[in-house]
TrEMBL record:
It comes from Klebsormidium nitens. Residues 66-112, 386-426 form the HNH nuclease domain. It comes from the Eukaryota. InterPro entries: His-Me_finger_sf, HNH_nuc, I-HmuI_NUMOD-like, Intron_nuc_1_rpt, WH-like_DNA-bd_sf. It holds the Pfam family I-HmuI_NUMOD-like. Gene3D superfamilies: 3.90.75.20, Winged helix-like DNA-binding domain superfamily/Winged helix DNA-binding domain (1.10.10.10). Residues 140-180, 268-309 form the DNA endonuclease I-HmuI-like NUMOD-like domain. The lineage of its organism: Eukaryota, Viridiplantae, Streptophyta, Klebsormidiophyceae, Klebsormidiales. This is HNH endonuclease. Transmembrane segments: none annotated.
C-alpha cells in the first residue's frame, strides 16, 4: 500500500520504435525526435503537431512556445542553438523539418540565402515592407501611389497583412483595390554609380545622443543615402522645417513612444546588453517577445540561455517628475479635434509636457520638424499628433474658435509644459522673438564653454544639428548631449 502523503509519480509514455531511431532533446528530456522531423511527448504519449504562426510552426512545451524547426535542430545536433544564430531550411521548404534539411546560419547569411531562394519575393529581406506600391480601384480604375504597405493600409482603411498577401498572389484583391509594386522602386534600391556603403560607428552614434544599439545595422552611403536594418535605401523624407532640405529618418531608427528599456544577460558568457524595448531584444537575439515578458514578470527564470531585467535608467525615466500632474482629454473634445473615440482612450498628458500611452509608458515624444509628436492609433488607423496640442487640450480645454492655434509662450517649441502653452488667434502677433536667449556649447569632459551663440537656432545651424529641439532637450535635462556637446543658457 502506498504511504499516505507520498507524491505520486507521473506516468510517462515511451516513444514508438517502429519509426526507427530517435534522440532525446538535450535539455527537455521528456521530448524525443525522429529523423523525419516528428516530435514525441513522453508526458502526453502523442506526437506534437503545433500551430502555424506566419510561415513557421509553433509548439507549446508547457511553460513556453518555441519554433518547431529550431527545437528539431537542437534534437538532431544534441545541443542548443548558439546565441544570435538562425536555423535555415536548406531546400527553402519550411514544411520540411527533417534533420538533413536544417542548418545553422548567422543572421546575415540567412538573409542572403532567403533572398537567393526568393528572387521575386523578398518578404523576409524587407523588400515588400517598405516598397512603393500602386493601388488600382476596381470600379473606377483610379490609381493611387503609396510609399509602403503601411501607408496604403492606413490611407485606405485596409489590413496591411492582406495587402502583402495580394502582392504575393494569395489574394486577388483587397476590398475594392488591387496592388502592384511600383517599377521605379526596384530601380531606386540598386547601387548608384560609384556608391559606397559604411556602417555607423557605435561610439560616434552614442556621442550624438543615440541609444546604444539603435544604429546597429544602419548603413550610410557616400552619396547621402541611408540603408535601414531591413535593407531599404532612401535619401530620407522631406518634412516641414526651418532648415531647408531637412530629412527625417525616425521611421527607420525609432518609434514615437519607445518600449520598456531592458538588459539581457547571456548565462554562458555573463555578457550584458541593453535594449530600448522587448521587441528590439527579441529581434536581435532571435527570441520570442512573449518569453522575454514572462522573464521580466518572474514567470520564467530564463529563455534560450538569457535572463532579463528592467533597465534602472528606464525606470527612473518613467517616474513622476516633481509636481507633475496627469490629465486625460475628454472624449468629446478629442472627437471635435479629429481624433476617433479610441485613439486617445487610455492616454494621459502631463503638466510637464509628457505623454503616457495606453500601456503606461511615458515619453516627451520624438522630434518632427520643429515640434514633438507621438503616435495615436485606433486599430489599423493611426496618425502622428503634436504633443503641444494634446497637452493644451488636456489642461486648457478646446480652442475658443476654429482659427485659434497653440503658442509656446517662451518661444521654445520643445517646452510643452502647461505654463508655456496657450491658445491664440492665428492672426495675433507673436512676441516670441523677445524671449530668445543666448546659449553656450559645453565640452562634455572638461565642462569648458567652447562657444556662445545668440540663439538656439544659430547654435543648431552652426553645429549641423538638424532639429533645434535637440539642444532645447539638453538644456531642459531631457537629453545628455546634442551634436556631441552639452548645452546651457548663457548667464
Amino acid at each position: 500500500m502506498e504511504p499516505t502523503g507520498a507524491k505520486r509519480k507521473r506516468q510517462t509514455y515511451e516513444p514508438p520504435t517502429e519509426l526507427g531511431r530517435y534522440l532525446h532533446h538535450p535539455v527537455q528530456k521528456e521530448y524525443v525526435g525522429y529523423p523525419d522531423g516528428s516530435i514525441w511527448s513522453k508526458k502526453s504519449g502523442a506526437f506534437i503537431q503545433g500551430s502555424l504562426n506566419g510561415e513557421y510552426v509553433l509548439i507549446n512545451l508547457g511553460d513556453k512556445n518555441v519554433y518547431r524547426h529550431r527545437f528539431i535542430f537542437e534534437i538532431a545536433n544534441q545541443r542548443v542553438i548558439q546565441p544570435l544564430m538562425h536555423v535555415d531550411h536548406i531546400n527553402a521548404d519550411k514544411t520540411d523539418n527533417s534533420w538533413t534539411n536544417l542548418q545553422e546560419l548567422t543572421s546575415q547569411a540567412h538573409a542572403m540565402k532567403t533572398s537567393a531562394d526568393n528572387p521575386k519575393r523578398g518578404a523576409k529581406c524587407g523588400v515588400t515592407l517598405g516598397q512603393k506600391l500602386v493601388a488600382t480601384h476596381i470600379g473606377t480604375g483610379e490609381k493611387l501611389s503609396f510609399n509602403s504597405q503601411w501607408h496604403a493600409a492606413r490611407e485606405l482603411g485596409l489590413h496591411q497583412s492582406n495587402i502583402g498577401k495580394q502582392l504575393r498572389g494569395k489574394l486577388k484583391r483587397v476590398g475594392q483595390y488591387t496592388f502592384e509594386v511600383a517599377s521605379a522602386y526596384m530601380d531606386q534600391q540598386r547601387d548608384l554609380p560609384g556608391e559606397q556603403w559604411e556602417d555607423v560607428p557605435k561610439d560616434l552614434a552614442v556621442e550624438y545622443g543615440f541609444q546604444p544599439g539603435i544604429m546597429k545595422g544602419i548603413r550610410i552611403s557616400n552619396l547621402g543615402r541611408i540603408q535601414d536594418k531591413m535593407g531599404r535605401r532612401t535619401f530620407g523624407l522631406e518634412v516641414p522645417s526651418k532648415f531647408p532640405g531637412d530629412c527625417y529618418m525616425s521611421t527607420f531608427v525609432g518609434s514615437s513612444v519607445q518600449g520598456q528599456g531592458i538588459i539581457s544577460c547571456n548565462i554562458a558568457s555573463g555578457e550584458k546588453k541593453r535594449f530600448a524595448s522587448q521587441s528590439q531584444a527579441a529581434k536581435e537575439l532571435g527570441l520570442f517577445q512573449s518569453n522575454i515578458s514572462l522573464c521580466l514578470k518572474g514567470k520564467l527564470a530564463s529563455t534560450e540561455g538569457y535572463t532579463f531585467e528592467k533597465d534602472a535608467d528606464y525606470e527612473n525615466d518613467q517616474a513622476d517628475l516633481p509636481g507633475e500632474e496627469w490629465r486625460k482629454i475628454p472624449e468629446d473634445v478629442g472627437i471635435a479635434q479629429g481624433f476617433s473615440s479610441k485613439m486617445l482612450a487610455g492616454m494621459q498628458f502631463s503638466s510637464a509636457g509628457r505623454v503616457r500611452d495606453k500601456r503606461g509608458r511615458r515619453t516627451f515624444g520624438t522630434d518632427l520638424g520643429s515640434h514633438k509628436v507621438v503616435k495615436v492609433a485606433d486599430g489599423p488607423l493611426s496618425k502622428k499628433a503634436r504633443v503641444h496640442v494634446l497637452c493644451t487640450l488636456a489642461f486648457h480645454g478646446p480652442p475658443p474658435g476654429k482659427d485659434h492655434i497653440v503658442q509656446h509662450i517662451n518661444g521654445e517649441n520643445s517646452d510643452n509644459s502647461r505654463e508655456n502653452l496657450t491658445w491664440v488667434h492665428k492672426t495675433a502677433p507673436s512676441d516670441r522673438r523677445g524671449t530668445v536667449k543666448a546659449v553656450q556649447k559645453i565640452d562634455r569632459e572638461s565642462g569648458a564653454v567652447l562657444a556662445t551663440y545668440q540663439s538656439i537656432m544659430e547654435a543648431a545651424e552652426a553645429n549641423n544639428i538638424a532639429h533645434r529641439n535637440q539642444i532645447s532637450d539638453v538644456i531642459a535635462g531631457r537629453k545628455a548631449t546634442a551634436g556631441g556637446y552639452g548645452w546651457q543658457f548663457a548667464d
